[in-house]
From TrEMBL:
Described purpose of this protein according to its UniProt entry: Required for the formation of a threonylcarbamoyl group on adenosine at position 37 (t(6)A37) in tRNAs that read codons beginning with adenine. Is involved in the transfer of the threonylcarbamoyl moiety of threonylcarbamoyl-AMP (TC-AMP) to the N6 group of A37, together with TsaE and TsaB. TsaD likely plays a direct catalytic role in this reaction.
Full protein name: tRNA N6-adenosine threonylcarbamoyltransferase
EC number of the protein: 2.3.1.234
Taxonomic source organism: Marinomonas fungiae
One GO location term (cellular component): cytoplasm
Length: 346
């Protein structure tokens, strides 16, 4: 079965074709980052307009790339939430209409289920049950995964998501949006002994929830302090980037380890934009080896938003006989735990 996947929940138009026999055939991503850059964040109305403009041409491109015609497709999967309403509407309308015209099933996919299953597109795959750390621009959640659609929320951020904290800190020192990768790059030149200390929020008490907003305030205080001392130079920026990255990574690692131990599981997957962070990946590899556990993640372009994860997640549910009705329903807010089990009738 060949499934066309459309991702349009935020500022990336991601289109892919996943073949349930041959695997991923092709994928393309068009990012709107440049359009939103001057505003320092995503402007919803601009995002929707751009998805409307880019989705159809990109569908033609992936079809040509895979040497397929529209009539070769067996189903269409599109992101139906959570995300920006207008952006979701663009992808859902195109996906739904195309499926109707071709007489094939369509399925609305949960964006975070897409992220969660992205590591399954790689050669090294975990086997369920496992723990998933979803770390993106809008989410920081620890989830126990027993099967597709059997998700138990173990903990989540009470305020900012980890990616959001990266982005806000980056903005404070004048780095472009989205700031996570820029902080990570700056941190490479940081000195770990520079003496900048940040807390590891909520790690000294039991539980699996997170809080990153205090860390952001600590970052701002340290920046002001350096400005007052006339010490806000290139080396300081690298040092503070490293200290901040280490604080977020340590906090995530401590909670992942705790979740594995609590649930008696040995496999962790990390997914969403922040899972592309090299320090997070390597620290988890080192720390989980100590408890005989392992970590799985997708290649960098499948950590951030992409169409491949939507095509894959959609394909799994379509294979199980699930599909969405003809009327369009998108959900800007949508808890992952509300999803049906893969074997449930919907
Ligand atoms: P959500 O998936 O919660 O709706 P989103 O789709 O906006 O949010 P993603 O596209 O999955 O989020 O991820 C983007 C986030 O990942 C941004 O906050 C970005 O700064 C962060 N990010 C990307 N690469 C890195 C990196 N190497 N290190 C740290 N953060 C990163
Ligand atoms: Mg994005
Ligand atoms: Fe995302």
């Amino acid at each position: 079965m060949k499934v066309l996947g459309l991702e349009t929940s935020c500022d990336e138009t991601g289109i892919a074709i996943y073949d349930t026999e041959k695997g991923l055939l092709t994928h393309k991503i068009y990012t709107q980052i440049a359009q939103h850059a001057e505003y320092g964040g995503v402007v919803p109305e601009l995002a929707s307009r751009d998805h409307v403009r880019k989705t159809l041409p990109l569908i033609d491109e992936v079809l040509a790339d895979a040497n397929l015609k529209k009539s070769d497709l067996d189903a269409v999967a599109y992101t139906s939430g959570p995300g920006l309403v207008g952006a979701l509407m663009a992808g859902a309308t195109i996906g739904r209409s195309m499926a109707y015209a071709l007489g094939i099933p369509a399925l609305g996919v949960h964006h975070m289920e897409g992220h969660l299953l992205a590591p399954m597109l790689e050669e090294k795959q975990p086997k369920m049950p496992f723990i998933a750390l979803l770390v993106s621009g809008g989410h920081t959640q620890l989830v126990r995964v027993d099967a597709i659609g059997q998700y138990k929320l173990l903990g989540q951020s009470l305020d900012d998501a980890a990616g959001e904290a990266f982005d806000k800190a980056a903005k404070m020192i004048g780095l472009p949006y989205p700031g996570g990768p820029y902080i990570a790059k700056l941190a490479q030149d940081g000195n770990p002994d520079a003496g900048i200390k940040f807390p590891r929020p909520m790690t000294d008490r039991p539980g699996l929830d997170f809080s990153f907003s205090g860390l952001k305030t600590a970052f701002l205080t340290a920046v002001h302090d350096a400005l007052d001392r006339d010490a806000f130079n290139d080396q300081f920026q690298a040092d503070i980037a490293l200290a901040f990255e280490q604080a977020i990574v340590d906090t995530l690692v401590i909670k992942c380890r705790r979740a594995l131990e609590q649930e008696g599981l040995k496999q962790l997957i990390i997914a969403g934009g922040v899972s592309a962070n090299k320090r997070l990946q390597s620290q988890l590899e080192i720390q989980l080896a100590k408890i005989n556990s392992s970590v799985f993640y997708a290649r960098p372009e499948f950590c951030t938003d992409n169409g491949a994860m939507i095509a894959y997640a959609g394909a799994q549910r379509l294979l199980a006989g699930q599909h969405s009705p003809l009327n369009l329903s998108i959900r800007a807010r949508w808890p992952l735990a509300d999803l049906p089990d893969i074997n449930e009738e919907i």
